[in-house]
Write a structure and sequence with these properties.
alpha/beta; Aspartate Aminotransferase, domain 2; Aspartate Aminotransferase, domain 1; 8-stranded mixed sheet; binds pyridoxal-5'-phosphate; PyrdxlP-dep_Trfase_major; WecE-like; dTDP-4-amino-4,6-dideoxygalactose transaminase activity
Length: 376
């Protein structure tokens, strides 16, 4: 039995929807399927506006444009994240101020954010790792008191919530990813969530190459013209048509993933009790989406041995981010605020186990069994 790390979500009916998109005779953006996805996302998240994009990276770039990030501005983000979290702002000239994470959730430590704020700080970008929420009440309070914006990198956060509020819908702006490795996929794609109404019109313009095409199509202006900076951030209808049926069945997918996650947790909790390794923590006020299941080994050496052990038994497991502040670009475009107590140490011992929709009980139990064997 070979167990891959991920299987891109496929429910089987995507092709029917994609065929309809082809039959519609319009594959370019903002047709029927994109509009349906936007509405679904607004309904699921409660965001004032959801706009499907070509990627989460591009949704974050749109956020940086909307916030008018300029040369010399500072943006606060965790170092334990994907490059796009910060690249979007570096592209506008910002310097990144990396803040340490909490070892329990691997999310930015909300208690360290305020100390990292300077007169140049324009935004905080919390990343909800594995669909487990950052401490958003605290983060929003800090942002409000200092007059700075919050962009949630909710790439992994769709269908997850913080105190009952959907991730991505709490900050001024939020971004989802629909990459093949995420819970719902359109191949490459994402969405920008606009929660502050003041950004909606400009978001539509930036997404449409800096034109007022959207207003023109609505009939609210009589000329279609260049009105602002922008780029092409709207995906093809084919991609939207792949995503739509998955969003329609989002609950089923989420429940299935959560079941796999719970089986892992149940099956491995004795190892944690014996102090052999650690399991992920989901605070009581957060509901997650089982985006990933990780364990924490004693150290990097043990993790490498476990990875090899699993690989020899046909099981793919992978580690995650190399901290951004220690990368070539991270050193050039950012600085670490305060001490790196947890970021490097925790990232070196984190190992992600196979997780995908439709993982069978046998596959699930095989992985659990082999991890137990390694430690036993
Ligand atoms: C996947 C991911 C992204 C990038 O998403 P794309 O849709 O591939 O651009 C950004 N941030 C985080 C935290 C991610 O996990």
């Amino acid at each position: 039995m070979k167990i891959p790390f991920n299987r891109p979500l496929s429910l089987g009916n995507e092709i029917e929807y994609m065929k309809k998109a082809v039959d519609n005779g319009k594959l370019s953006g903002d047709g029927e399927f994109t509009m349906e996805c936007n509405l679904m996302l607004e309904r699921m998240s409660g965001a004032k506006k959801a706009l499907l994009t070509t990627s989460c990276t591009h949704a974050l770039e749109m956020a940086a444009l909307l916030l008018d990030i300029k040369e010399g501005d500072e943006v606060i983000a965790p170092s334990f994240s994907f490059v796009s979290t910060v690249n979007a702002f570096v592209l506008r000239g910002a310097r990144i101020v990396f803040v340490d994470i909490r070892p329990d959730t691997m999310n930015i430590d909300e208690n360290l954010i305020e100390g990292a704020i300077t007169e140049r700080t324009k935004a905080i970008v919390p990343v909800h790792y594995g669909g487990v929420a950052c401490e958003m009440d605290r983060i929003m309070d800090i942002a409000e008191r200092h007059g700075i914006s919050v962009v949630e990198d909710a790439a992994q956060g769709i269908m997850a919530a913080y105190r009952g509020r959907a991730l991505g819908s709490i900050g001024h702006l939020g971004a989802y990813s629909f990459h093949d490795t995420k819970n719902y996929t359109m191949g490459e794609g994402g969405a920008l969530l606009v929660n502050d109404k003041g950004y909606i019109d400009r978001a539509e313009i930036i997404r449409e190459k800096g034109t007022n095409r959207k207003e023109f199509l609505r009939g609210t202006v009589d000329k279609y013209t260049w009105v602002d900076i922008g780029s092409s951030y709207l995906p093809s209808e084919l991609n939207a048509a792949h995503l739509l049926p998955q969003l329609m069945d989002a609950k089923k997918v989420n429940e299935n993933r959560l079941q796999t996650w719970s089986r892992y947790h149940e099956g491995l909790k004795d190892l944690e009790k014996e102090g052999l390794m650690e399991l992920p923590l989901v605070p009581g006020h957060c509901s997650h989406n089982a985006h990933l299941f990780y364990i924490k080994c004693k150290n990097m050496e043990e993790r490498t041995r476990l990875m090899d052990f699993l690989k020899d038994r046909g099981i793919a497991s992978v580690f995650h981010y190399i901290p951004l502040h220690s990368s070539v670009a991270g050193m050039r475009y950012g600085r670490f605020h305060g001490r790196d107590t947890h970021t490097t140490r925790e990232s070196e011992r984190l190992l992600r186990l196979p997780m995908y929709y439709g993982m069978t009980k046998e596959e699930n139990e095989k992985v659990i069994g082999e991890v137990c064997r390694f430690y036993g």
